Amino acid sequence: MHRNAKLAAVSGSPTVRRRRIARELRQLRERAGMNLEQAARQLDMSKSNLSRIENAQIGIKPRDVRAALALYQVTGVDAEALIEIARGAQQRGWWQNYSDVLPVWFEFYVGLEAEAAAIWTYEAETVPGLMQTEDYARAVYQITAGEDDIDKKVAARIRRQDVLHRESPLEVSAVLNEAVLLRSVGGDRVMSRQLDHLVELSELPNVTIQVLPFESGGHPAMTTPYVIISFPDAADDPVVYLENLTNGQALEEQDHVRGYTLVHERLRKMALPPDESIAKIRDASRNRP
């Protein structure tokens, strides 16, 4: 078994590394013919803890990874590659400096976003966080979360946008319901500037914005906005991320990812082409007082 070539290109995000090590350990345990209870007993940990490790809900120390690999009879360069991933998973991401204002479940999302190669998203009511101006973001937080720690929350949101301008920038395909353009958030001045910002972002070669007009009628994402995240390393499977008022959920099963991918492809066909979408955004900005 020479899997080190696949593991050599390790992600820089500790969140993605933790997800990678979780999947690898689960697969190794299954190949060794052990169930959770058997492996946990041998590793001197609870079944629930091992389950949480294998589901990337908690991290695992490199020494515990080494013990698991010995149990699963993985040695040499394969073992060292996995241990190196585990070391990387213990590093701190920039978003952890905002852990006092970011919920744990959203920190997980930001950690995925930081390493993503591409994001496909549909938004029904608001401009995606990666595309918000500071004033628009502030207005959204005031409406949805109040004034507590608002400066730090806005700073974290703006910091996330670095992925659009890095050396290998994030590729974004965003479909926006027409309501996003028409619902005034923060007043006409803030909204007009936000719409102009969308036009500016659309000029980036890695950003595609499409508007889903009302005349398109019913569509397959009427019940939920979503984000589909894919990564530069094929060893890191894509994720669908869903969010509500109090929690976020990552769907990793292939059927879920495939289903949302098909939905996004259909929405892109139903939406206005990019050039017509930008014209509509410009019109919405000009038509504000």
> What is the subunit arrangement here?
single chain
Global Rg: 21 Å
| Strand count | 6
Which regions contain 5 or more consecutive residues with pLDDT less than 50?
A: 1-11
CATH class label of the largest domain: Alpha Beta
* Number of spatially distinct domains: 2
What percent of residues adopt helix (DSSP H or I)? 40-55%
CATH topology of the largest domain: Endonuclease, Chain A
CATH architecture of the largest domain: 2-Layer Sandwich
Largest sheet strand order: 3-2-1-4-5-6
Largest sheet: 6 strands, mixed
The chain-level structural class is alpha/beta
Instruction: Give the ordered list of helices and strands.
Output: HHHHHHHEHHEHHEEEEHH
Q: Mean pLDDT score, rounded? A: 92
> What distance lies between the first and last C-alpha atoms, to the nearest angstrom?
66 Å
Percent strand: 5-15%
Number of helices: 13
| Overall outline | elongated
Provide structural commentary.
By secondary structure, the protein is of the alpha/beta class. The protein has two domains: 4-89, lambda repressor-like DNA-binding domains (434 Repressor (Amino-terminal Domain)); 94-286, Endonuclease, Chain A. The protein is 51% helix and 11% strand. It is built from 13 helices and six strands. Strands 3-2-1-4-5-6 form a six-stranded mixed sheet, sandwiched between helices. Helix 2 (14-31) runs antiparallel to helix 6, helix 3 crosses helix 4 (47-54) and helix 8 crosses helix 9. It is elongated. Residues 1-11 have low confidence and may be disordered.
